Amino acid sequence: MSAAGKLPRWAELALLPLINLVVALLLSGVVVRLLGESPWTAFKLLASGAIGSQEGIGYTLYYATNFMFTGLAVAVAYHAGLFNIGGEGQAYIGGLGSGLVALWLGDRAPFLVVLPLAILAGAAFGAAWALIPAWLQARCGSHIVITTIMFNFIAASLMTYLLVNVLIKPGQQSPESREFGANAFMPAAHEVLARVGVTFTASPLNLAFVLAVAAAALVWVLVWRTRWGYALRVAGQNQAAAVYAGISPPRIIVQAMLLSGALAGCLGLNELLGSQHRILIDFPGGAGFVGIAVALMGRNHPVGIFASAVLFGALAQGGSQLSFDLPKINRDMVVVIQGLVILFCGALENVFRAPLAGLFSRFGPADAKDAG
After folding, report:
1. Residues with Cβ < 8 Å from 159, sequence gap 6 or more?
2. Which of 55, 86, 152, 192 is the most buried (most CB within 10 A)?
3. Three-class SS string for the chain?
4. Residue ranges of domains in the chain
5. 90 close to 264: Cβ distance less than 8 angstroms
């Protein structure tokens, strides 16, 4: 990037994404107006539905938990120079692993035994589902985008078969497993808070949120504070330099995708053990694809991913309130808002970079020199 296009680091990480977000919301307001509704009313309902009550906050953070797991999965692969589109399938198969542990041990072992085994199983199943695309990319040159997309469809077909023919609860029509034993239920946030004297409205928010935050901290340590993380970033930015430094890019590709798949595979902890308490068809609900936008908007950094996951969680929860109170706006309109946020914070993230850099070079040359 030329010097004229440089920004101070704080502007790069905070101001530019904020400008892109504001523009996306303004354009969303124009669409709402064209539908005959007040943009101000729509955004007030969106905000009140997401953060205007304890229940809304609980649902927002519940959705954000899924997006954190999948966003971190995308970010780890991205730092290795890979674009993992397979988070949906990896989350699906990872959830199968966690769900099988819950079905097997939910009424046989205490929760402190079930939880670590469910985490390990979810991570292992998700990593295993990412292994073949990783190996094909590392050894055969197959494009990771194509193979991970294909594996999403394979995962969906496999889960449909298992839930219709193998895991379905006897005597029912709906393709879902029996309910887990009570010892496999992830503690709900309102129940945990009640034990320490804090009253919080019941919602699906559960212990998996804490696990997602811990996963974000773990990714930060691994990627930015370890030798392996340094090798990961070098291989992702310049494979020739990585080879010269004694780093094996094929090995890094496989390792990064295994970690990426493991992170996505932990989504089932929140969705199955924390909320549904059974294995269902299509339980990821598109979170694997939303995770791509979350990672892009969060600049593939755990702190940014946390913030953008909460934003998309708020859009998901607030959109429910919006479609309920404004009859001319349905769930598809919420998808439009999400799409505009993705467009300006992802594909068009650099539209305002040059004008903003020009302002900094004109009014703050000292800051512009420190950019990077």
Report:
1. 92, 93, 96, 281
2. 86
3. CCHHHCCCHHHHHHHHHHHHHHHHHHHHHHHHHHCCCCHHHHHHHHHHHHHCCHHHHHHHHHHHHHHHHHHHHHHHHHHCCCCCCCHHHHHHHHHHHHHHHHHHHCCCCCHHHHHHHHHHHHHHHHHHHHHHHHHHHHHHCCCHHHHHHHHHHHHHHHHHHHHHHCCCCCCCCCCECCCCCHHHCCCEHHHHHHHCCCCCCCCCCECHHHHHHHHHHHHHHHHHCCHHHHHHHHHHHCHHHHHHCCCCHHHHHHHHHHHHHHHHHCHHHHHHHHHHCCCECCCCCCHHHHHHHHHHHCCCCHHHHHHHHHHHHHHHHHHHHHHHHCCCCCHHHHHHHHHHHHHHHHHCCCCCHHHHHHHHHHHCHHHHHCCC
4. 38-325
5. yes
Using one digit for the tens of pLDDT, what is the confidence trace for 161-193? 999 999 999 888 899 999 999 999 999 999 999
pLDDT at 364: 59
**Average pLDDT for residues 263-288, to the nearest whole number?**
96
CA neighbor of 274 nearest in space, from 95, 43, 88, 74: 95
Mean pLDDT of the chain: 90
Question: What's the average model confidence in pLDDT over 33-41?
Answer: 87
- The predicted pLDDT at position 331 comes to 72
Fold category of 38-325 in CATH = ABC transporter involved in vitamin B12 uptake, BtuC (1.10.3470)
